[in-house]
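Standup notes
- HV: blocked on the assembly model, inputs below
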Amino acid sequence: MSDLTQLVATDLGIGLGLRATHYGEILDRRPHVDFFEILSENYMHTGGRPLRVLDEVAAHYPLVMHGVSMNIGSTDPLDRTYLRELLQLQRRCRARWISDHLCWTGVDGQNLHDLLPLPYTKAALRHVVERVRAVQDLLEQPLVLENPSTYAQFRGDDYTEPQFLAELTSATGCGLLLDINNVFVCAQNHGFDAEAYLRAVPWEHVVYCHLAGHKVHATHRFDTHDRPVCREVWQLYRLANELGGPRSTVLEWDADIPEFARVHEEARKALRHRGRPAVAGGTS
Amino acid sequence: MTGSAELRRMQRWFASGVTFSTDHATARHGGHGRQPARSPDCDVGRRLVSHPDRPPSAAIGIYREGYFARLVHVLRNDFGCVHHVLGDAAFTELATRYVVEHPSRHPNLNQLGREFPAFAKRQDRLEHRALVGELAVIERYVCEAFDAPEFTPLGADELAAVPADRWQHVGLVVNPSLHLCSFDYPANAFYESWRRDRSAEVPEPRRSWLAVFRSGERVQRRSLSRAGHGMLSELASGAPLAQALAAADPAEPVAEWFQKSAAAGLFTAIRT
């Protein structure tokens, strides 16, 4: 089994989410990018071009895997077929780690394709701990879980989100993907202090960070990944680097995606906020 | 009630609230839309909070709006030509009703539209229903061909190596991405016109036949004659060449047809 300490210490640098609209640019020009994060489901249950592109990108860049359908918080049985397919994909592209979200995505076999909120209760913690352990046993590596953007919370919670994350990581040894934009979106939506959240994060479990843009609605902020990172999120990213040291970081841009150079430029802004340069990772 | 049982109850309530469409007009169209399992005022719902300044119902509304917008967007991408024919409002209504009746049960959204062609064909009041159904079939098969497993096409040398006296008895394994279609409209010509300039006039009915398949990385649509469709259907069902040739058009040069079909990547192996 991979060692979580090793994953946490592996600073791959500044990466980008690999998106189909940029395939041509990446394959033809092979730009200097530290690593790419793939959306796992985009390369599962498919043949042809996506897998050929993946093979070629994997030959030139380090990859990490990020999924949206593990359904780790659901009360449905774990989908072991899905998990085995994840593992096959990881072997194919030699991804450094596998991540998903601390959420549930469906129940009774239905997939809502959304990151739905969990109550942060003792019962929910026991439930998720058991499932994370089962997933890690099957994958034979630490699972990396992301804090989601949420638009609802539950009365009567026993923990705040960072407390829940601390309990979960302590009980299972899993890793964390800390999405800085999600922290800010949730802080605005639910009225908590984002800086206090970052100070309560169990940093020894944070494997990497996400950055993204979000949309401001009249009643809430919505995690859209369709625009540049806002000033407040950059400030939080700077604080995160002060608190936890530099971590591998991925910029996500999933809608209204501009040309590759613009996305790459946005990602490279992260360098200004990092305390130390990347010490590991690879490029073409 | 145990903690997990309570969590399950909450998740069922939450999911039914997210997936319930109040404006999908299922009843009006005679469909089978599901009703929410519980009222948002139930005890589980009362545990839900969003922002201190907003009512709990606003929270689930955000998820509900996102759910339908996201899945309808996926269908709009997969069925762009159907969207063109119906217009945005009618397509959105059709797609919303489809999502209610056929919720996703697969980790991958590329499976969402699997039943959409059959669903569209069942809608009595749909404008241009027959043509729309055929276009939906083409667009779904294009998606399926794109995602089909890897394969190696049959080489010309492998074909040439079959002794002449064995030809009647062998079969040809068809490309695993191949889908054969038989239409009442010139649906592929319409689809091609839409792809070329995003505008196409609704045609008069005319029988047409089509093969949709992937060759290398490219998804191809190859118009067929009735006889060509018949021969490929026989081969796809595992029949030997002799049986497939019975469907051939005597006026069509069969050897040339096989060579062109093999060169296009329609076959992957010889079945002896």
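- HV (later): unblocked. Residues 1-127 of chain B form one domain. The CA atoms of residues 112 and 147 of chain B lie 13 Å apart.
- Next: hand off to the docking folks.
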